[in-house]
From TrEMBL:
GO MF assignments: GTP binding; GTPase activity
Keywords per UniProt: GTP-binding, Nucleotide-binding
Cellular component aspect of the GO annotation: plasma membrane
Name under which the protein is recorded: Uncharacterized protein
Mode of membrane association: Lipid-anchor
Localization (cell): Cell membrane
Species whose genome carries this gene: Agrocybe chaxingu
One Gene Ontology biological process: signal transduction
Keyword S-adenosyl-L-methionine in annotation: no
Main localization (coarse): membrane
SMART domains: RAB, RAS, RHO
Pfam families (alphabetical): Ras
InterPro entries given in the database record: P-loop_NTPase, Small_GTP-bd, Small_GTPase, Small_GTPase_Ras-type
Length: 201
């Protein structure tokens, strides 16, 4: 059987977004390069591509690691970057209350720009390796916010390699779920509209 080339694979465009310094690049680089980089040049913007297997399916992830633009983090994100993405990892650091507080407005902006009520999103509480006294956000708070946003919650660490692949797998599953719901909705509209199945003889 011929080996599957990267070009045959379905590509998933993902955006890793969150406040400045929450660890967006750390998370992305841990997945794509398998290592933790303590100091990363924050001005570098890039798209990383990585072939992964999600639920036994080969997929190609195109990950946009949002750069430290004007003002950094969320402020540097443009509408075009949001529009280009199919799935979103909304990242806060469990060691930073302000990064957690920033998630709600980021979420609202994504809904507005994408003009949809439920785009594929995973809420990520990053730097879960931090010791308990450095934590500002509990797991319960993360779970509660995710419930409000209607998305899954996962805690990750690039430093210790915790749940990194799982976070990216989860966003692919969310994309699958949304696409399936859209397909079912379209099929329903096709069959329920009065003229949808008219046959002119
Ligand atoms: N403890 C801990 N520190 C981390 C982790 N991931 C990243 N960091 C540290 O957090 C700091 C910021 O990491 P980056 O990955 O550059 O964060 P960023 O969100 O890409 O930052 P900007 O691009 O500047 O907005 C660096 O000092 C990293 O070493 C992690 O999983 N655990
Ligand atoms: Mg970065």
């Amino acid at each position: 059987m011929p080996k599957k080339d990267q070009t045959d694979l379905r590509e998933y465009k993902l955006l890793v977004a969150g406040e400045i310094s929450v660890g967006k690049s750390g998370l992305t680089l841990r997945l794509t390069e398998g290592r933790f980089i303590e100091l990363w040049d924050p001005v570098i913007e890039d798209i990383y591509r990585k072939k992964c297997v999600v639920d036994k399916k080969d997929v190609l992830l195109s990950i946009y690691d949002s750069p430290d633009g004007d003002g950094g983090g969320i402020l540097g994100l443009t509408d075009r970057e949001i529009l280009n993405a199919e799935g979103f990892l909304l990242v806060f650091s469990v060691g930073s209350r302000s990064s957690f507080d920033a998630i709600t407005s980021l979420h609202q902006r994504i809904l507005r720009v994408k003009d949809t009520t439920s785009p594929p999103i995973v809420l990520v509480g990053h730097k879960c390796d931090l010791p308990a006294d450095n934590r500002q956000i509990s797991t319960d708070e993360g779970v509660t916010l995710a419930r409000q946003l209607g998305c899954p919650y996962i805690e990750t660490s690039a430093k210790e390699g915790i749940n990194v692949e799982e976070a990216f797998s989860q966003i692919v599953r969310e994309i699958w779920k949304c696409n399936k719901e859209e397909l079912e909705q379209d099929q329903h509209e096709d069959t329920s509209g009065c003229c949808a199945r008219c046959i002119i003889i």
